[in-house]
UniProtKB/TrEMBL annotation:
An annotated Gene Ontology molecular function: calcium:proton antiporter activity
Location within or outside the cell: Endomembrane system
GO biological process: intracellular calcium ion homeostasis
InterPro entries noted in UniProt: CaH_exchang (IPR004713), NaCa_Exmemb (IPR004837), NCX_ion-bd_dom_sf (IPR044880), YccF (IPR005185)
GO cellular component labels: endomembrane system; vacuolar membrane
Name of the protein this chain belongs to: VNX1 protein
Record key words, sorted: Antiport, Calcium, Calcium transport, Ion transport, Membrane, Phosphoprotein, Transmembrane, Transmembrane helix, Transport
Lineage: Eukaryota, Metazoa, Chordata, Craniata, Vertebrata
Record domain Inner membrane component: where: 132-182
Principal localisation: membrane
Recorded topology in the membrane: Multi-pass membrane protein
Taxonomic source organism: Menura novaehollandiae
Residues spanning the membrane: 135-158, 232-262, 317-337, 343-365, 377-398, 418-440, 452-472, 519-539, 571-590, 602-622, 643-662, 668-689, 696-716
Coiled coil start-end: none
Domain Sodium/calcium exchanger membrane region as annotated: residue spans: 348-467, 571-713
Length: 722
């Protein structure tokens, strides 16, 4: 490691324009910033000339300033976003990738701008419209939507007064069969008297061609009576059917995400095209040699699909989280209305409840990040400490309560398996997967080994403290076996025993209540104290180990005032509502998990360490992958380490404290499999992270070891008593 440069931030009188040395520094620290595409100038604090000479930065070689090795420079558009970026590097704070403020429109790429377009822009020829996505539209929606328009057109022709709308539907039938490369335009209609006087051969000065045929029925209409009658017939017979069909197309296409342009097409057709008078709607096919059209363009679509819509956000919320939100409502309604399983079984309700936890975890994470970014350090620390583990704790506590009411020890064992699965998954799977995905794009990735060392030390301490009562019970406990058989038929011979475990409840629980339980309470007090010391160490006395500098981003002509997606009060309301919904979903999951544990041939260990442990962490895994793709592996590793440390130092002590006020079957004595898997995972992780750099091979090793442990849990017998 390069020696630390004396801190010179105190005598810095202003930012200095980034040079070649700065770019080398950013490459070494593997931090390109979350906003690398802004094109902003990077700034950094002044460095003493005695340490970093100008010649060092001016030489076009691989040599860089040694003092720059430990610096990390990030860019942000505004103070709120800068505060969020800074919180990502603080120990104990939730790491959040998405923006909490609206990004300036001029700073976005053309790909992102296209995602938010209203399909009313005419652009140059972009090639053939015969693409896979457009053919998919034809097979899924185009043919039956066009047929429906033909049927509605026939109905409107029968009504006589609706003939103009019938002709409109006939033209729209051809349009929606293949809308690509065509344009729907709102035009100004000449006075009906002028149209009648001009005759059939009159040309339109607006379009430069023959007058559209749909304008001519107004000549025979004579008065507005027939127009009103036609509109009434259209709104009663035609529009409701077509609006319902377009609504179905809109919802289906929106849920498929890549077909969101089709959803926009249907929504705009329902709200604009179908509500216009038929004489004001003009449908034309675009040609390469055609001059630009006059008048307002309502619809102009070139492609039915766009693979980049996974980036789409609604009010700062990712489209996946938006689409999964109705699942929460379905789960709650189905779970509490159909309590006797008349409509669906327990397996379906358990699956729905578990899937509903994912979007709720996302909303909780974004609410925490929004509140922390807009508040001071104290408020952010309290919010992160209070709600940072609320997702897991709600499930664990509801499971322990149900197990206590039913007198079933399986729930306590499932909670222990979920705790161990979260620990092992966040130590092996999360960083390993991030290394593999990030290593595919970047040949070698580096991270801050000093900050990772702090988390590793806390992880060693927490694992040792959590499993200390287990080791104590194995040393002083009594070995009890379920059944034993005499192999040699000799009373003094060898016995073969099954289902053996160390019992700490022998002699009316003297060993447990006199020795093990006091040790559990002691550990549960020491672990949170160690967590607080770690916070004070990393955030106060030794915050320089992160050395994060948030630079200003000033671009000429751009206004970068913070426009937050969620205000503090709105984020607080969403946080509380999401927490309540999370508690309800956790209650439904524990209510319907009993048949799965009883009837399933899979070990309860495996269910706990996989499904119950990793599903709530999926939003965190996605954040880690996004950081790794941006060559910011430090945050990817910190995500896993932070969750693992919180499991041992916060969640388990809280569960122990909960058992004091509400007695349950939960004891801090784990099985041998949990102890060995956890300790081996922590040792392997520290060995991999020792040199501060990694590649996809090391990530593959971590992932493979994780899957090996999953195979062990899969073939392991169920816990005793289940």
């Amino acid at each position: 490691d390069v020696p630390k440069v004396p801190d010179s931030r105190g005598d810095s009188d202003g930012p200095r324009r980034g040079s070649l040395c700065d770019r080398h520094c950013a490459a070494i620290n593997n931090v390109q910033g979350d906003l690398g595409d802004l094109g902003c100038h990077l700034h950094r604090p002044r460095v003493p000339p005695a340490v970093c000479t100008p010649s060092c930065c001016q030489q076009h070689s691989e040599e860089v300033c040694e003092s720059c090795v430990v610096k990390t420079t990030l860019t942000a558009e505004n103070a709120v976003e800068a505060n969020k970026l800074s919180n990502n590097y603080k120990f104990g704070f939730k790491k959040w990738k998405s923006h909490v403020t609206a990004r300036p429109w001029e700073d976005r790429s053309e790909i992102v701008k296209e995602l938010y377009s209203d399909l009313n822009v005419i652009r140059g020829s972009g090639g053939s419209t015969l693409t896979f996505g457009n053919v998919l539209y034809l097979l899924l929606f185009g043919w039956w939507l066009s047929l429906l328009y033909v049927l509605v057109a026939a109905v409107m022709f029968v009504t006589v007064v609706g003939v103009p709308y019938g002709r409109l539907c006939w033209d729209l039938a051809r349009y929606f069969l293949w809308p690509f490369g065509k344009v729907i335009q709102k035009v100004e209609v000449p006075k009906s008297q002028q149209v009648c006087e001009a005759g059939v051969g009159e040309s339109s000065a607006l379009l430069g061609g023959p007058t559209p045929r749909r304008w001519r029925p107004q000549c025979w209409a004579g008065t507005g009576y027939w127009q009103r009658a036609g509109a009434v017939a259209w709104l009663c017979l035609g529009y409701p059917v077509l609006a319902l069909a377009h609504g179905l197309v809109c919802v289906t296409a929106w849920l498929l995400i890549v077909l969101i342009p089709v959803a926009k097409l249907s929504a705009r057709s329902t709200s604009r095209v179908l509500l216009l008078p038929p004489e004001r709607v003009l449908i034309r096919r675009l040609r390469m040699t055609e001059v630009p059209l006059e008048g307002e363009v309502i619809l102009c679509c070139y492609s039915a699909t766009n693979p980049y819509y996974y980036k789409y956000a609604v009010d700062g919320i990712n489209v996946f989280a938006v689409n999964l939100l109705p699942l929460v409502l379905v789960t709650l309604v189905l779970g509490y209305v159909d309590s006797h399983n008349h409509l669906t079984g327990s397996a379906v309700k358990f699956t729905l409840a578990l899937l509903s936890i994912m979007p709720l975890s996302y909303y909780i994470g974004m609410a925490i990040a929004s509140i922390s970014a807009q508040s001071n350090f104290a408020v952010g620390a309290v919010v992160n400490a209070t709600f940072g583990s609320i997702t897991e704790l709600t499930f664990y506590i509801t499971a322990l309560i149900k197990g206590s009411r039913e007198g079933n020890r399986c729930y306590a064992e499932v909670v222990k398996s979920a705790l161990t699965g979260t620990l092992v998954g966040c130590v092996l799977f999360v960083p390993g997967l991030c290394m593999v995905i990030g290593g595919i794009r970047h040949q070698e990735q580096r991270f801050n080994s000093r900050s990772a060392g702090v988390s590793s030390a806390l992880l060693f301490l927490s694992v040792g403290g959590v499993f200390a009562p287990t080791l104590f019970s194995k040393v002083y406990g009594k070995l009890v076996c379920g059944e034993c058989h005499n192999v040699t038929q000799n009373p003094l011979g060898h016995y073969l025993c099954h289902n053996c475990h160390f019992d700490v409840m022998d002699n009316n629980g003297t060993l447990y209540y006199s020795h093990v339980q006091p040790l559990v309470y002691t550990v549960s007090l020491l672990l949170p104290a160690a967590y607080l010391i770690g916070l004070f160490f990393t955030l106060k006395t030794h915050s320089h180990i992160y050395d994060i500098h948030i630079s200003d981003c000033h671009m000429p002509g751009h206004h970068h005032s913070a426009v937050v997606h969620w205000s503090r009060w709105r984020a607080l309301v969403i946080l509380l509502v999401s927490t309540l919904c999370m508690s309800a979903c956790a209650d439904l999951a524990t209510e319907h998990i009993s048949p799965i544990l009883t009837n399933s041939t899979i070990s309860q260990y495996f269910i706990g360490v996989t499904v119950l442990a990793m599903v709530p962490e999926l939003p965190e895994i996605v954040n880690g992958i996004q950081f790794a793709l941006q060559n910011n592996l430090s945050l990817s590793i910190e995500i896993g380490n932070c969750i693992a440390v919180q499991v041992c130092m916060l969640q388990i002590p809280i569960l122990v404290l909960f058992t004091i006020f509400y007695p349950t079957n939960f004891t801090l004595v784990f099985s041998d499999l949990h102890v060995y898997a956890s300790m081996f995972s922590v040792v392997l992780m520290n060995y991999i992270f020792m040199d501060g750099k990694c590649d996809y091979f090391q990530g593959t090793v971590l992932v493979m070891v994780y899957f090996i442990l999953l195979a062990v849990y899969f073939f392991a017998p169920s816990p005793s008593g289940c």
